[in-house]
Design brief:
single chain; Alpha-Beta Plaits; Rossmann fold; alpha+beta; Elongation Factor Tu (Ef-tu), domain 3; globular
Length: 603
Amino acid sequence: MVESRFKRNFCIIAHIDHGKSTLADRFIEKARLGDPHAQMQSQVLDNMDIERERGITIKSQAVTIPYDAADGNHYELNLVDTPGHVDFSYEVSRAISSCEGAILLVDATQGVEAQTLANLYMAMEHNLEVIPVVNKIDLASADIDETLRQIDSDLGLDSSDAVLVSAKTGQGLEDLMEAIVRMIPPPSGNPQDPLKALIFDCHYDPYRGVIVHFRVFDGTIREGDTIRFMHSGARYKVDELGIFQLNLQRTRILQEGDVGYMICGVKTVSEVSVGDTVTDADRPAQSPLDGFKEAKPVVFSSIFPVDSNDYEELLAAIEKLKLNDASLIYEKDSSAALGQGFRCGFLGMLHLEVFQERIEREFDLSIVLTSPSVNYKVYMKGGEMLNIDNPLDYPDPARIDYSEEPYISAEIMTPTQYVGPVISLCLEKRGVQTRMDYIDSKRVQLTYDMPLSEVLFDFYDRLKSISRGYASFDYQLTDYRRTDLVKMDILVNGDPVDALSQLVFKGEAASRGRQACERLKDEIPRHQFKIPIQAAIGGNIIARETISPFRKDVIAKCYGGDITRKRKLLEKQKEGKKRLRLAGNVEIPQTAFLAVLKSRQED
């Protein structure tokens, strides 16, 4: 085993697309982990198909890299690659808590962006040693001097410590590894103390059960030891221990400062929780380590299996994803139209989309999602306050005194030429500008207070399109403010479809209702009878579309002769259609539920 003074634990943090996963690839290549021809591919730590297709990191991944430094010593560098998107900032906070240092990556072509600042503050909260690194120096558009100036002025870090690298070509990598050894402190634990290890992630293996990812802070753990989870009190015998390389590498023993995995026969997913402390059952630690702040979901949606017989499989799938995604919350739910399902909470719309894709791909289940909603506070005339995130729980409007909705402080960094369109978008989304700072001659930072519900649907996509991808966005929840809230029902053939109900701001109800009706008209197939699609608030219809019926030409054989004969046949057909409409059921396809969530402007 390597002594703790020759270990370094660090993570890579940065804004989206600044090159975290590519830099991790260069570290792995330099360490010659595995067969380079068989296993090396771009973004080697992004091992989910969905990460590769979207080109983003969703799960933080750990890897141990051996390194022979210039001082003649052999070091073990434990690297954690983290996501950059704001929806996965909870993943970043968990990765940071298992490290002593962080590489803060800044793109030399883009400079400091919104998430760069957010991640820096998170690293500082955990007292991490931060090494600023300027990436993409090989590109013709790289402005290294300006990026170094931003590191000084915007981040408040010493730009003389900054390391210049190209994650694509590997230029400057040796300097960066030396900086890690020199600047990041070694772990400070004691191998003789009682065992204290923090669980920062888990994943489920169908053959070996739950595989726990943890960082040892104090003590030593060996295969055969009996350990206890301090939160749940569950005891287990350790079957296998090891470190992360491209595959799991068995080592049989882990000491203070090590980041590794543990297999101990955990079969029930609920007994392991991320943030729990692992200790020795015979010689336990006095107190657990500080865990993680509970993730507060901001977007809620109900999820139902398309086939009601898949309910138990959906429950098992959600439990396994919860193990791998600690920020997900869920509870049982039911719907008249869709049967039994689950009400789930997410950290944002991308988080919801990724969850839906993982359920469908990894567990081969077909699911239906209801319209996403945020958590509203509804104050009743009797003084009672209700938290409402599901339109079906919305009380009778006559009993409501007033409602409040969550607001965010949104920070948008954009090049100056796109300021006008960005301001127009924010005003359209009911945003109120609180600050406007010119960072330099080319970039502006705009701060807006706006309702969270306005950011849910298409804000991020439209921001990227109007700024040609250059604007960056970060937000924090601030407080709740009064709003004029109404429940909008969608009626298909006169019957309300509870899975399509939405809680909306009254001023936007008509446009949202019109949009939903137009979407459903495109998705619901034609029937033998006319189908009205209506959006309603209470008893008031605010939008309507009609799907025309199939129509058989009943007068084809009536050529010539009196018009009354043709009329009689057409009236007979009309009566038949009316009777069919009263008795007929309208099948709403799964795509229709998803189509309602999308904005017409995306087309």
